[in-house]
Each structure stands twice: as structure tokens, then as C-alpha cells.
């Protein structure tokens, strides 16, 4: 174990019998925790970089606290593995990485709407995404009072219908931006809406092809002007699907963390999942047949059973919608979760594995011996997506970097 979350490092003191004692905080692995394999991230970054080739840059998307893995840990590992830059969603996420000492290019993928935020972005050397002339003018005004240009990336909406300038207005917008002397347009990008679903077989399908066509048309219309601009379109699904989506840079999140966008994604890449969720057994109960377990008694034992109470719940990020649907691995053996997942606890049926002891560790997510429980296993069961599963683990779970 190399590091742990801050709350577990802060010592507490109390006075007892006239002397002050340093209370030893609970160990980060005493209850439940998220284990992050930083070498896996570094390796995934290296694998992805090799895959996209020398002419394409790799942006590691580390927003949402590095998809729940810890942004600083992930950013440093990804850069070690060859990533060229970082992508975050918010100003605060960018500042956090600068405070952690990271000097590389950081693009803010979300929209900063007011001049205070854009001013901070400028001061922290973070690249904002702009979608229109309004933000461009604010950026220009900010940089006007300095001797530095404000570097920006322009987002184009090719079909996500979220952020970005209308495809048909890009040429005009860029000609206006070119009049603004204090900003430097260094990137132009768009975002794929259904590249994960479109990847069936080896050819680009349907809407991704339409988005690609729209993006290419915009670039063609720009003529020579596009030469000095970094063009980027692909997320993980796009980057792994087809090199025609790569352009000058790809922005990868999910694949950096070791997962393919869908289970049947056709790829030979050797990516390693970096995250495990583990929790300890806090009590073992022998109960009779027909006993209701947990809130609502949604589960009743069908036989004399051995149950293990495990110290993790929906307040830690394990969705209650998974109640009675998941299994965890203990020594590489799967045991089913039974009854409603509560805020801080859940129960597993260990009748088939009666040698389990109090304090023993269950792997709820990730690899344990031959068993692998993926975020997609959970998201299929709860009507979610792997991205949401990864981002849902709360700070109450210490992140332990291995
Ligand atoms: C603009 C943008 N680019 C890239 C990504 C990375 O996507 P993925 O995790 O599918 O690789 C995201 C993530 O949502 C994003 O919002």
C-alpha cells in the first residue's frame, strides 16, 4: 500500500487521565475501501499511446476525481505512461491538479460561464472550452491586460446536442475569433454521442459516421486555417473503433481505467482494470429457514443459512438498485448478496462457503483470483452504465493506491 486518503492521515488527540494521547485512526482497510492500481493506469496509458501511434496525442480524461480512482493518482500515472495532456470537467478539478504540481496542458471540458471563472482558468494556465463568441470575447478581454495570450479550444456540436457551436456557424465564428488579438485558438473539437453503441463489427456505423462527416466538413471549410489547430473527436469508443476518428488527439477516459465501452467490444488491446472495491465481514450469523433479512425483509432464507454482514452500503456508492442481484468474491469463490442493500451494510449468503471468518475481505468489484466482477456487470443489473458505477464511490471509502 503506498498512500491513502487524507482523512485517514489526520491524527486526532484526546485527553485521558490528565495526559494527551494520540488516537490511532482506524486503518483505511479496516472497513471498506477502493483499491487503485496505479501501475495498471500507467500501463493502460502506454498501451493506448502505442495503439494510436506517434502522430496522435493522448489526452487522459481525469474528471470526476479520475472516474472515482483519484484524479492526482490517475493523472500522474497516465502521464508516466505517455499521456500528453489531461482533461477535466471543472475549474476546480483543474486547479486541484495544478496544486498537485502537474504542469502539462489541462483542458476544461465543461463550459465556464462567467469572467471570474475564465479569469481563474487563465491564471492557473488551464485551457477553457468555448462554444461561442460570448466566451471568446470574455477571454480576449481578460488577456488584454496582460502580455500573454489566452489559449482556448473551440467545441463544435456535431450531434451530441450539448455543448458546442452549431456546425454551420463555425467558419464565421472562427473568422470573428481571429480578430480577437489576445486569444489563441489552439484546438477544435467535438464529442461522439453513440460511438460505444455504433461499434458493432469493424466498420463505423450510422450516427458516428454522420458526426465524422460533419466534423470533416467543418475542417475542410477552414482550409489552411486548421493547420495550426489541434483537432480532436474521439472518446475511448471512438479511439478504439477506427483510426479515422483519431485526428490529432484522442480523449480517453474509460479505457485508461482498463475497461472497454461495451462488453462485446472487439479489441485485442490488453487493458488492465485498475479499481477494486473491497469490504470486510463484520459479523457472521447462523439463521434458521424462513428468516427475513434486512429492511423490508425482501429476502427470506430458503434453508438454514450462514450469513455474513459486510460493512459497505449505498452511502459508499453501491447502489441500492443492486440489492439481491450482485455477488462478491471471497478467496475467488462467488457468494450472493441477499436482502436490501442498506446505507452502511449489506448481507451475503455464505452457506456454501462456511469457512469465512469475521474480518475476512470480500471483493465486490474487480479481480479476485480467477473471478472478475466488472463495472458493466453492475451497470447491467442496475440499469446504469460503467461510467456511473465508477464515479459513484464516495469519499467515505478510502482510496488505497497499490
Ligand atoms: C468531452 C469528453 N471527451 C472524452 C470523454 C471520455 O470518454 P470515455 O470515458 O468514454 O473515454 C468524456 C467523458 O465523458 C468527455 O465528456
Description:
The protein has 402 residues and is α/β, with parallel strands linked by helices. The chain has two domains: 33-257, TIM Barrel, CATH 3.20.20; 276-401, Lyase, Ornithine Decarboxylase, Chain A, domain 1, CATH 2.40.37.10. The protein has helices spanning 38-52, 63-67, 71-80, 91-99, 115-123, 133-144, 170-177, 195-198, 206-222, 236-241, 375-382, 386-391, and strands spanning 12-16, 19-23, 32-36, 57-61, 85-88, 105-111, 127-130, 150-157, 165-166, 183-189, 230-232, 249-252, 275-287, 292-293, 299-300, 305-310, 327-330, 333-338, 346-349, 361-368, 371-373, 399-401. Strands 3, 13, 16, 17, 18, 19, 20, 21 and 22 form a nine-stranded mixed sheet that branches. Strands 4, 5, 6, 7, 8, 9, 10, 11 and 12 form a nine-stranded parallel sheet that branches. Helix 1 (38-52) packs across helix 3 and helix 5 (115-123) crosses helix 6. The longest helix is centred in the middle third of the chain and has 17 residues, at 206-222. The chain is elongated and about 80 Å long. The protein starts with 11 loop residues before the first strand and ends with a strand. Residues 5-9 have low confidence and may be disordered. The protein binds pyridoxal-5'-phosphate (PLP). Pyridoxal-5'-phosphate (PLP) binds at residues 61, 109, 191, 235-237, 251-255, 261.
